[in-house]
Design brief:
About 40% of the residues lie in helices and about 20% in strands. It is built from 13 helices and 14 strands. A hairpin with a 5-residue loop joins strand 6 and strand 7. Helix 2 crosses helix 3, helix 5 crosses helix 7 and helix 5 runs antiparallel to helix 9. The longest helix is centred in the middle third of the chain and has 28 residues. The radius of gyration is 26 Å and the shape is elongated. The two termini are about 30 Å apart.
Amino acid sequence: MHRSTDEPTGGTVPAGSRAHPYTDGPDPGRTPDPARVDPAVLGTLLRRHGWHRRGGAQGRYGRWIPPGPSSTGTSLLVPDTTAFPDSEDLLAEALTALTRSAAPSARDILVALTVPSDEIHWWRDVPEGAAGAAGAADWTGADQLRTAARQILLAGALAVRGRAGYHGARHLRKARNALDGTLVGPAADGRALTAFVPVTSGRAVAVQLYAALHAAREAVDYQRATGGMEAFDAAVAAGVSRELTEAVVALVRGAEGTRITLAWAPAAGAPAGCPAGPEPVEFSPGDLPALRLAGARYLQDEPAVAVRITGAVVRLRRSGPRGSGVVRLRVLAGAEVAHVRIELDEEAYRIAGHAHLVGLPLRVEGRLENRGGFRRLTGASQVAPVQVDEAERDRLMKSLHENVDFFEEACTGDEE
């Protein structure tokens, strides 16, 4: 789904993702092109990441120092504009110094300059143990933070595809694809994490998360004040779902408090309808009961969906040589899920088996049930093979030969 900024780069990079340009630490030989860097954008990013401006000729250049102990002996001389003859030289020197800087935020700034991205920051307030006091990150806490952040991003991507109290497996493939290219880089202490969502491919996800997180916060406040769940029902229109509430629960669990902050890419500016500097959204352990109630409500209330699915039969199973059986389809059209499981009567099961043997897809009508994440089709009817062109038929036949063990399982009568 996305690639960590501190993940080893050995092997191949999955299609659709991009490697971090500074994966193994600062690289003096790889700086952003000064001719393509706006000094105003660089200044905004430095300020956003806690750097401080200390002097300089006003209107011409400024001297910036990083936050924390790494500021000793380190500074950047950044031009305010490109209007002066030495501006590009100063900018090139500042970028080179940034690649060599020991400041933890230097790499994040370089990422934002290389690929204009909206930034989503997560922070968890967790008690500091002995390892944390020694400067080491807690393995379990860091993993929990990364997992929860990934789930929150996915919930936002699902909401972009469609509003629902519970998405299940619907739109899952496209939602994951929407996060391709997203970079994630944790802070050294394991309590904070930043995701860089490219503006060109992921801004819709960032905008959706902005709306959904604030709507979830308001719904929690309403539930805690009144005991009513009506606000969570209305929040579905803003992108709140079971997937989002579960992700926030995972983020808060074990922490004394959490905070999520969005910051728009300076080069692109704020999207329409959103403030230039969105307020952070905070959640605490006291919010967990309301979030859990909302998640259960979303799961219970999301209705079944009437569909007409076309799919390739990839598995057949029944307990004996005759009678009803269970078929698994790889969905080709008709529903935003990858696979569905269908229980068929004896005649329909025979039709499905013949269709699979000759390499034809199957068309079937029924209702996608939310049980199991909308992967089960009930009330199957109108089961019939579908004629396809020779190229598609050959491809399906190839899939049959590669998965012949499914038919062996069908003959032995193993249960799924």
